[in-house]
Design goal:
Its cofactor is pyridoxal 5'-phosphate. The chain is built from 14 helices and 15 strands. The protein is of the alpha/beta class. The chain folds into two domains: 259 residues, Aspartate Aminotransferase, domain 2 (3-Layer(aba) Sandwich); 126 residues, Alpha-Beta Complex (Aspartate Aminotransferase, domain 1). The strands form five sheets. It has a seven-stranded mixed sheet with strand order 2-10-9-8-5-3-4, with helices on both faces. The protein has a two-stranded parallel sheet with strand order 1-14. A hairpin with a 2-residue loop joins strand 11 and strand 12. Helix 10 packs across helix 11, helix 11 packs parallel to helix 13 and helix 13 runs antiparallel to helix 14. It binds pyridoxal-5'-phosphate. Pyridoxal-5'-phosphate (PLP) binds next to helix 3.
């Protein structure tokens, strides 16, 4: 059997889609370090370091800044299941596939969900959110920051204020932007923000950084059902009070990350090493420098696409810097292009979902891959593949030249 099932030796693909992307080599090296017991003082010291490292990355001073073990969706689900009780009203700011995911999770929680929507490729104006909050009176407002399905980044300045005035807590899924665009949990005034490693943080998927405000923590702890592994009898046990998940019960996870170190699950040691090194790589470069690098890569991708005579998707004012969608030209088979990109150039670019399926490709330049040479190589390959597929109107070399010029302009801007 071992003749057929060999040692892992994956091809060296360049992952230029909407995520995951290639992990930074330092992160992979950190993840090969030896394991520790979950209550070993060295391990709990690493946990405290992770808390300190992720505060600036989330733009917060929140004490409760830690990791949920699982992919980004684990962070989303832990936040929503811990904040929202069955029957409570939740407003979802919905402008893409991940808004639908929030809605879907909340419906399972038993929340009464209303959405305030924007068409794919646009964002929801703050006034529309304010009006919906006023009309609906939600306990929680949930939104995505950057939705990779549409490449739009929802502006969030002012959201926290308007939620607090209405007595609502707020939740933000920042998986696709954390590390690539500014996350300002405290300035936005939002209560819970979650992320993942596999986009701009340049790690593998499997760990979800999270930050929780004091107000949200208070609400979560008030719903605490189990302490020291023992059921509490002193809380109202009626439906709507208990947190309806054990694994994703943030009260229990926070007890584990607190000085109490109450056992919940076994911390995913190797993922924690990875998340820790992702943060060290980012803070070593500097947050501002890293955001500038992502912005330069995004501008270069868009400039290259346009110079090839292709059309960028979505409202330019709100496009994420780290992933760019472009229309598949008429008469071109989108999947055939992606296959040639993979087979001939070892480059992965992204397909699309829902209303954009078959209409756009998505090119990401995130984390370790938000680099000039990777953008240029991708655009050069795309030109060659498009020509091979019969799209012959591209001025030779135009995409690479425009991307290079755009990158240089951004570097000197
Ligand atoms: C990529 C992405 C996720 C991914 O979640 P996983 O569970 O890590 O696959 C979640 N939210 C947004 C906005 C994303 O872009």
């Amino acid at each position: 059997m071992l003749e057929q099932i060999g040692e892992i030796d994956p091809p060296q693909r360049l992952l230029m889609g909407p995520g995951p992307v290639n992990a930074h080599p330092r992160v992979l090296r950190a993840m090969s370090a030896d394991l520790l017991g979950q209550f070993d003082p060295e391990m709990t010291a690493y946990m405290n370091e992770v808390m300190a490292l992720y505060r600036p990355i989330f733009g917060t001073e929140n004490r409760w800044t830690f990791l949920v073990d699982g992919t980004a969706r684990a962070g989303i689900e832990a936040a929503l299941v811990s904040l929202v009780a069955p029957g409570e009203r939740v407003l979802v700011v919905n402008f893409g596939r991940f808004g639908l995911l929030l809605t879907e999770i909340l419906e399972r929680v038993g929340a009464v969900v209303e959405t305030v929507d924007a068409p794919w490729g646009e964002v929801v104006p703050l006034e529309a959110i304010a009006a919906a909050v006023e009309r609906f009176g939600p306990k929680v407002v949930a939104t995505v920051h950057g939705d990779t399905s549409t490449t739009m980044a929802q502006p969030l300045d002012g959201l926290g204020d308007l939620c607090r005035r209405a007595g609502a807590l707020s939740y933000v899924d920042a998986t696709a932007t954390i590390g690539g665009m500014e996350i300002a949990a405290d300035r936005w005034g939002v209560d819970v923000v979650t992320g993942g490693l596999q986009k701009c943080l340049g790690g593998p998927s499997g760990s979800a950084p999270i930050t929780v405000s004091a107000a949200a923590a208070e609400r979560i702890f008030s719903r605490r059902h189990v302490e020291h592994g023992i059921r509490r009898d002193d809380i109202d046990d009626g439906l709507g009070v208990r947190i309806g998940s054990n694994y994703f019960d943030l009260a229990m996870i926070m007890d584990y990350w607190s000085e109490k170190r109450l056992n919940h699950h076994t911390e995913a040691t190797t993922m924690l090493y990875g998340a820790r090194e992702c943060a060290r790589v980012l803070l070593g470069e500097g947050l501002e420098a890293c955001f500038r690098r992502h912005a330069a890569a995004g501008r270069a991708v868009a400039a290259g696409i346009r110079a090839m005579g292709l059309t960028v998707f979505g409202d330019d004012r709100y496009r994420m810097t780290n992933v760019t969608a472009l229309y598949i030209p008429d008469g071109i088979d989108g999947e055939a292009v992606r296959r040639r990109m993979r087979e001939d150039f070892e480059i992965e670019i992204g397909t699309a979902f829902g209303p954009l399926a078959g209409k756009v490709w998505r090119i990401g330049a995130m984390g370790y891959n938000a680099r000039k040479h990777k953008v240029l190589i991708t655009l050069g390959a795309l030109e060659a593949v498009l020509r091979a597929e019969g799209f012959s109107s591209i001025p030779p070399g135009a995409g690479v030249a425009a991307a290079l010029a755009a990158w240089t302009d951004s570097a000197t801007a």
